[in-house]
């Protein structure tokens, strides 16, 4: 959201004066809240007149940013520019530049937001992104408007408006990083606290905290600086690439890549690291997109077709437009000219608008995490601050009542204010994450977003990719099933060792792939590689013999190898390639057999997809049954097809469209490939299932194969029912429909492999309802349900387990839909076509050899799914540790607050060394080691609480506060009843004369006392402080022990050796100090001697409190069974959306539906509509009421 403002000079002067008067407090507040600064010295106005804009994010965080509007003038360019309003500045009629530049002034207004430049569109009255070609350009526009290059004048205009083609990451100066860290609100509060403590002479702990804070700031600054330098070095080379472009009317020109602009024509000479995003218009090339996907598999790019229509070029290619686009940061490893000169591409996007720029921006400006823990932590700190404020007013009242000086009163009141909020809180909260990150690193799991580790502790649903994640990466050839005369023939088994006989099927397997010969080795997709190896043919470079035939040296030549079967064909030349894409699920090539003058088309792809492009009479009648026979056994099945092209000229082949090539084909048969489960898959899925973590499969493979893999891996347990959900788009006379089919498996014993799938009239037994049924659907059905049956989607997702033939976009969408149901989603994939889903999930884990992948927050070097339970265990341990540390620090603040408040009643204070013992020897050490306890090796069947403001945790803090309060108040009051008790400060002269060598503060105390025995502010020596100190100290130690719960999420406390040793040492030291009668200790600790029986009573009181607190915490507050019983008795249920749906569906006798079809307009089965895709005007009012969508849902669906 954008708001316009105009600066007022008078307001600015007032702001400067107020800033000086408040000693810099006002500018500090404005630094934290930039919107206040704008509201203070600007007045609202329209965006057209604004010199300052305020941006507000539309997410739940509603963050503000202030940006200055910059005016730039084209008159600064040393070229003649027409000031005629009728003449466009650039030839591209779609360009925003023509609408942004005002004539005759030749000026334009712009703002820079997160490295992207936006210019003011004077016609549409909005800020619009520049640095890219508009998507509204058609294929015709790109070829004809930009095909010959831009003129020099247009290049200069675009350079000024769009900015340089550079991804520049500024190395932040150390002073700037330091200022940012120091001005953090908590550090400012810490500085105030430390200043106060130092002024009161509490030097030792203040110095310890200063050292810790300085270390923390220095480490943070060093870390940020290193990241900044690394990122800078990573992208710096990108800005210095020398490239060749075509300039209109001038020919070729060589220049530095930072001078490129959208619309330039880039010449691809050979190997090149792409400095921008470009669309290929002439020739083809092979690129390595490892930087984007994490998979270093060569990808073939084809030129944008010469279409005459006015359809936007991306829409023309549908989801498959990426096959024409060369992305910034990827490597061109081979170019294939089309015979009309060099390989050319039109630049689409420059700078931070590119794919690489987008990745760098995602690192520079990560998406903020909305994790309830962090929101609750802030609320907790605020409530502690309120407690401190109450203490402030209590201290004011007490000291003013006793007539203390204003200076003493304010000092003591502020001191009590700072006691409630522990200054080590930020450091303590991050230690758990640091320890977890270190342990994950040892297991080969790397993390680029440490805050997400705590989120991993809440994961209750994990989505898995299939190929390369659950199953082995490589596929093994099992056999081929050829067809002759519309009938399947006998299987040719590859395990028999016989060579594949020559025929169209062999030719298809040898030629229909995207493999390339690079430095003498064949490279490409593992599936293609395995298929090609099965033919025993070889790839060769084009030599002189073939060049004479008019074949380009960029064409692939395939020849029979020494182990290949006898072939009448000497070689196959691949002339044209239509690459494979996940969305199209197919690929095809145009090839020529050596010695022939006509051409052949070979095609491979998903069997269901490929059968549509074949002549029906060539597809065997038992095709569905035969396909199912193999897919239910878990085989990966690929279909092959072929046709002869009726053309003789090579030039005609280059102008062929994919639609023409992929039609009227002859079905050749099936290629069967075996995809084995990884040995780790089954035990990991079993472990997750026992921990009640849902597992879901999202794959691009066949639905039946996915179902079989799910059953073999026991993702779908034995005896569970599978319901196929098949949805169809609305047709001319039929509305959209959903069919529910129950799959019945009759396993015929170990000797028989075939599984029959009967769609009968059986239904799921009522007593087996719940988790005994699983929905399975394809990407096509998912898309239809998303659009036309939106109200059904949550019902399906609650029990949806298999999602097959899913495109990358659908994978991301599915993860998002699961998140809407309040699931904490983990996604595990190989990082190739899962990038979007990995980023969308709460915890995305990429299985990659690289240390850190930009594709996901977590990267596992071990390429199997064992990393998933490890990550969840560490996440749970880190989350429980964070809660434990938070509870401990809260209690530590409250214990000190109660003790200090009781002493304030008599205008007394704990001694410096008394505070120091609690603060450094206990709290500081505890906070740094408490989180070091390792994760429990077994996953519990439930998650730790994800809320700080949950009843058990709040009760824990409240009850412990009550126990402390009772013990401390009782000790305070009972002390006064003792016969030996006296108010030391009242009889200080007598006491000091008899105990003169007991105190180091004799002189200061003598100076402070008054002749009439009045109360003395800041007195330390007293029976009260000597009694309360051991109780508060032991309470701090025992509280740390109580809150360090081990099982079920962490190992027992004794396994954390350092922490256990520190607690035992602190307890021993406290008891020693309490019972020792050494005068040096009494002098140093500022104690007053008491009788031994009283000391024993104090110790017994503290230990009794520990026993009560431990029993309450362990037997009541941490008793899961008790809380579940309370919830059941009071009818308290989870408010998570998926839980609400589970309860609703459990009571619905008609769910799950089986063997029926629902229509989008069928009132009997429920009128399912998605108001995001249908206009309300088209829906009758009485039907609209049945939609069950609230206005808010409607709005978000549309969004």
UniProtKB/TrEMBL annotation:
Q: Name one GO molecular function term.
A: ATP binding
Q: What class of enzyme is it?
A: translocase
Per the database record, which ranges form the Cation-transporting P-type ATPase N-terminal domain?
147-192
Question: Where found?
Answer: Membrane
Q: Which residues form the P5B-type ATPase N-terminal domain?
A: 1-121
A single cellular component GO annotation: late endosome membrane
Q: Which UniProt keywords apply?
A: ATP-binding, Glycoprotein, Magnesium, Membrane, Metal-binding, Nucleotide-binding, Translocase, Transmembrane, Transmembrane helix
Does this entry carry the keyword Glycoprotein? yes
Q: What is the annotated signal peptide range for this record?
A: none
GO annotation, biological process? intracellular calcium ion homeostasis
Q: What residues does the P-type ATPase A domain cover?
A: 242-363
This chain's protein is named Cation-transporting ATPase
- Which species? Bison bison bison (North American plains bison)
């Amino acid at each position: 959201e954008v708001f316009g403002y105009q600066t007022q000079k008078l307001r600015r002067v007032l702001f400067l004066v107020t800033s000086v008067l408040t000693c810099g407090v006002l500018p500090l507040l404005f630094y934290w809240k930039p919107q206040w600064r704008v509201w203070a010295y600007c007045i609202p106005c329209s965006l057209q007149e604004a010199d300052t804009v305020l941006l507000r994010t539309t997410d739940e965080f509603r963050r503000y940013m202030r940006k200055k509007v910059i005016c730039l003038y084209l008159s600064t360019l040393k070229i003649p520019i027409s000031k005629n309003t009728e003449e466009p500045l650039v030839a591209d009629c779609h360009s925003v530049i023509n609408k942004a530049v005002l004539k005759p002034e030749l000026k334009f207004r712009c703002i820079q937001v997160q490295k992207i430049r936006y210019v003011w569109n004077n016609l549409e009255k909005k800020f619009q992104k520049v640095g890219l070609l508009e998507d509204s350009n058609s294929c015709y526009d790109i070829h004809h408007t930009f095909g010959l290059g831009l003129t020099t004048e247009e290049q200069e205009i675009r350079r000024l408006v769009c900015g340089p083609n550079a991804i520049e990451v500024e190395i932040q100066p150390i002073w700037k990083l330091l200022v940012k860290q120091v001005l953090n609100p908590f550090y400012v509060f810490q500085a105030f606290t430390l200043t106060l403590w130092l002024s009161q002479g509490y030097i030792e702990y203040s110095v310890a905290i200063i050292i810790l804070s300085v270390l923390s700031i220095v480490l943070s600054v060093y870390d940020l600086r290193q990241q900044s330098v690394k990122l800078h070095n990573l992208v710096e080379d990108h800005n210095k690439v020398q490239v060749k472009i075509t300039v209109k009317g001038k020919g070729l020109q060589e220049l530095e890549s930072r001078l490129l602009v959208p619309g330039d024509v880039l010449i691809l000479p050979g190997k090149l690291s792409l400095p921008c995003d470009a669309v290929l218009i002439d020739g083809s090339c092979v690129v390595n997109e490892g930087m984007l996907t994490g998979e270093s598999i060569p990808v073939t790019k084809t030129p944008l077709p010469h279409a005459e229509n006015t359809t936007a070029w991306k829409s023309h290619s549908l989801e498959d437009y990426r096959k024409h686009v060369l992305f910034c940061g990827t490597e061109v490893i081979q170019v294939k000219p089309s015979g009309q000169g060099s390989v050319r591409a039109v630049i689409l996007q420059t700078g931070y608008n590119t794919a690489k720029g987008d990745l760098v921006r995602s690192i520079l400006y990560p998406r903020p995490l909305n994790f309830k823990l962090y929101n609750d932590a802030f609320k907790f700190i605020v409530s502690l601050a309120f407690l401190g404020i109450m203490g402030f007013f209590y201290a004011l009242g007490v000291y003013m009542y006793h007539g203390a000086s204003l200076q003493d009163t304010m000092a003591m009141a502020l001191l009590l204010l700072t006691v409630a909020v522990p200054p080590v809180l930020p450091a303590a909260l991050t230690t758990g994450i640091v320890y977890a990150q270190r342990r994950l690193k040892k297991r080969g799991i790397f993390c680029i977003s440490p805050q997400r580790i705590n989120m991993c502790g809440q994961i209750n649903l994990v989505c898995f990719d299939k190929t390369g994640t659950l199953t082995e990466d490589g596929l093994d050839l099992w056999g081929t099933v050829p067809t002759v005369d519309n009938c399947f023939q006998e299987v040719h088994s590859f395990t028999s060792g016989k060579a594949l006989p020559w025929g169209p099927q062999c030719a298809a397997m040898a030629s229909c792939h995207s493999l390339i010969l690079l430095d003498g080795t064949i490279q490409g997709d593992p599936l293609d590689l395995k298929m090609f190896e099965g033919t025993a043919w070889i790839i060769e470079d084009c030599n002189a013999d073939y060049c004479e035939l008019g074949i380009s040296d960029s064409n692939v030549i395939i020849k029979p190898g020494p182990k290949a079967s006898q072939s009448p064909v000497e070689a196959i030349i691949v002339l044209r390639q239509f690459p494979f894409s996940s969305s199209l699920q197919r690929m095809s090539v145009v090839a020529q057999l050596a010695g022939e003058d006509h051409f052949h088309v070979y095609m491979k792809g998903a069997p269901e997809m490929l059968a549509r492009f074949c002549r029906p009479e060539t597809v065997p009648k038992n095709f569905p049954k035969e396909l199912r026979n193999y897919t239910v056994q878990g085989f990966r099945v690929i279909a092959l097809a072929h046709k002869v092209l009726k053309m003789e000229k090579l030039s005609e082949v280059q102008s062929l469209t994919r639609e023409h090539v992929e039609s009227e084909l002859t079905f050749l048969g099936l290629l069967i490939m075996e995809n084995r489960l990884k040995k780790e898959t089954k035990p990991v899925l079993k472990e997750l299932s026992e921990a009640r973590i849902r597992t879901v499969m999202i794959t691009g493979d066949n639905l039946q194969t996915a179902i079989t893999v799910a059953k073999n891996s026991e993702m779908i347990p034995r005896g569970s029912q599978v319901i196929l959900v098949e949805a169809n788009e609305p047709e001319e006379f039929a509305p959209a429909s959903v069919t529910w089919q129950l799959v019945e498996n009759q396993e015929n014993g170990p000797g028989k492999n075939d599984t029959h799938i009967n769609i009968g009239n059986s239904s799921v037994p009522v007593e087996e309802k719940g988790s005994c049924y699983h929905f399975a659907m394809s990407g096509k059905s998912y898309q239809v349900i998303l659009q036309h049956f939106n109200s059904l989607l949550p019902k399906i997702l609650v029990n949806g387990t298999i999602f097959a033939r899913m495109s990358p976009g659908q994978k991301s969408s599915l993860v998002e839909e699961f998140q809407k149901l309040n699931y904490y989603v983990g996604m595990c994939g190989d990082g190739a076509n899962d990038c979007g889903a990995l980023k969308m999930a709460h915890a995305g884990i990429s299985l990659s050899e690289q240390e850190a992948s930009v594709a996901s927050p977590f990267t596992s070097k071990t390429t199997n799914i064992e990393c998933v339970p490890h990550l969840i265990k560490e996440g749970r341990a880190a989350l429980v540790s964070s809660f434990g540390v938070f509870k401990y620090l809260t209690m530590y603040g409250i214990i000190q607050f109660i003790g200090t408040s009781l002493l304030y009643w008599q205008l007394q204070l704990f001694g410096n060394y008394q505070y120091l013992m609690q603060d450094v020897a206990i709290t500081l050490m505890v906070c740094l080691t408490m989180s070091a306890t390792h994760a429990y090796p077994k996953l519990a069947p439930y998650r730790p609480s994800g809320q700080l403001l949950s009843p058990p945790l709040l009760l824990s803090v409240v009850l412990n506060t009550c126990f402390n309060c009772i013990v401390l108040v009782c000790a305070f009051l009972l002390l006064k009843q003792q016969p030996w008790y006296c108010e030391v400060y009242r009889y200080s002269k007598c006491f000091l004369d008899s105990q003169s060598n007991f105190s180091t503060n004799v002189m200061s105390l003598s100076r402070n006392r008054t002749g009439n025995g009045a109360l003395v502010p800041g007195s330390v020596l007293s029976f009260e402080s000597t009694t309360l100190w051991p109780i508060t100290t032991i309470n701090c130690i025992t509280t740390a022990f109580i809150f360090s719960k081990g099982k079920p999420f962490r190992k027992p406390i004794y396994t954390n050796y350092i922490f256990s040793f520190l607690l035992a040492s602190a307890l021993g030291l406290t008891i020693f100090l309490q019972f020792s009668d050494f005068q040096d200790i009494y002098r140093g600790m500022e104690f007053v001697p008491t009788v031994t029986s009283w000391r024993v009573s104090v110790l017994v009181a503290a230990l009794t409190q520990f026993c009560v607190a431990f029993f309450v915490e362990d037997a009541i507050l941490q008793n899961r069974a008790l809380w579940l019983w309370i919830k059941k008795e009071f009818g308290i249920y989870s408010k998570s959306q998926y839980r609400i749906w589970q309860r609703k569906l459990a009571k619905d006798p008609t769910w799950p539906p089986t063997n029926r079809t629902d229509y989008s307009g069928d009132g009997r089965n429920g009128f399912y509509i998605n108001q995001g895709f249908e206009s309300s005007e088209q829906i009758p009012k009485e039907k609209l009421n049945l939609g069950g969508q609230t206005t808010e849902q409607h709005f978000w669906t549309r969004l």
